[in-house]
Design brief:
Blueprint (H helix, E strand, L loop, with lengths): L3 H9 L3 H14 L4 H13 L3 H12 L6 H14 L2 H14 L4 H13 L3 H14 L4 H13 L3 H12 L6 H15 L4
């Protein structure tokens, strides 16, 4: 028996294909399950199946247009596709719905950096980090920002913390270790 909660656990573990397969089973049995629909949209986004993500998320949003998580996932799908305008519209809508969603602020920061608005990007990232410094993606982004801003002490501290976190995906752990070593060697 597949459940949305099991699929969410698979997403947290980075097993997007298994999560999508489980959610397809749930949706075949319960096509109106909005939680499953939103979760499959997020899983598609995380696995870089952006067209599928947008299709599922549009279907979801037609039924619940006030979900910051859905709008955030739409923004992330567009961001990954290089569609900066639609990404910004979706992420700003998510932010209006829930101004305290740290993930939305982090993703807006990424977008602002991409379009050359570095000061705004850093400001949004700091807001995101202040709201939720336990989120490893935000902590990683903050550590990278500190490194770019030539603040190795703060970057070192965050990379040290990150590399010791059990839930950190292996790719980020390896990068955090390498960046930590580079900073230790003075390669700012």
């Amino acid at each position: 028996m597949h459940s949305v909660e099991q699929a969410e656990n698979l997403i947290r573990q980075g097993d997007y294909d298994q999560a999508i397969a489980a959610l397809k089973v749930v949706l075949a049995e319960e096509p109106d399950n909005l939680h499953a629909l939103l979760t499959i949209g997020i899983a598609y986004t995380e696995s870089n199946h952006n067209e599928e993500a947008l299709k599922a998320l549009r279907f979801y949003i037609a039924r619940d247009s006030e979900s910051d998580l859905a709008w955030e996932a739409v923004g992330c799908a567009h961001l990954r596709m290089g569609n900066n305008g639609p990404a910004q519209e979706a992420l700003e809508r998510a932010h209006r719905i829930n101004p305290s969603n740290a993930g939305v602020l982090r993703n807006l920061s990424i977008l602002m950096s991409r379009i050359g608005q570095q000061e705004k990007a850093y400001s949004l990232l700091k807001q995101s980090y202040n709201l939720n410094n336990d989120d490893y993606l935000t902590a990683y982004a903050m550590a990278c920002a500190y490194r770019q801003l030539k603040n190795p002490e703060k970057a070192l501290s965050l990379f040290q913390t990150l590399r010791n976190r059990d839930e950190l995906p292996e790719e980020l752990r390896e990068d955090s270790v390498m960046q930590y070593i580079e900073l230790q060697l003075g390669w700012v």
